[in-house]
Design a protein that fits this description.
By secondary structure, the chain is mainly alpha-helical. Helices cover 48% and strands 9% of the residues. The protein is globular and about 55 Å long. Keywords: 4Fe-4S, Cytoplasm, Disulfide bond, DNA-binding, Iron, Iron-sulfur, Metal-binding, Transcription, Transcription regulation.
């Protein structure tokens, strides 16, 4: 396993470092084990100008964990929320299934939006 950064397939838009929450807060927040901290990281991603590109890139790379583009990745898949340790309640399992479907749909829309932007850039 290499720790070298993966090559980017698309040129990243130039954005000031001040606009990126992942550059202004503790990076460990995006890779925390605590569900509350991951929810905070998700909320910070909401206003990021690179949110869609970040989410699409993480989905393509199947990131093993962390918050990417406002979504939580676990084992390469988007999860609605990270469960705390212990056995979940039955109603939590049902709610998680609905949230997982919603998160997967958002991820698919983000990938499509980024691909459409890329196609427009290439056509220009």
């Amino acid at each position: 396993m290499s720790l070298a950064p993966a090559p980017t397939l698309r040129p990243a838009p130039r954005v000031g470092q001040d606009a990126l929450p992942c550059r202004n807060f503790d990076p460990d927040l995006w890779f925390s084990d605590a569900p509350a901290q991951l929810e905070l990281a998700k909320s910070l991603c909401g206003g990021c100008p690179l949110r869609l590109e970040c989410l699409a890139g993480a989905a393509e790379r199947q990131e093993p964990w962390g918050v990417w583009g406002g979504e939580i990745f676990e084992h390469g898949q988007v999860v609605a929320r990270k469960r705390p340790r212990g056995r979940p309640r039955k109603e939590d399992v049902a709610r998680d299934a609905a949230l997982r479907d919603e998160a997967a749909a958002r991820t698919a829309r983000a990938v499509e939006a980024v691909d459409a932007r890329q196609a427009l850039r290439l056509a220009a």
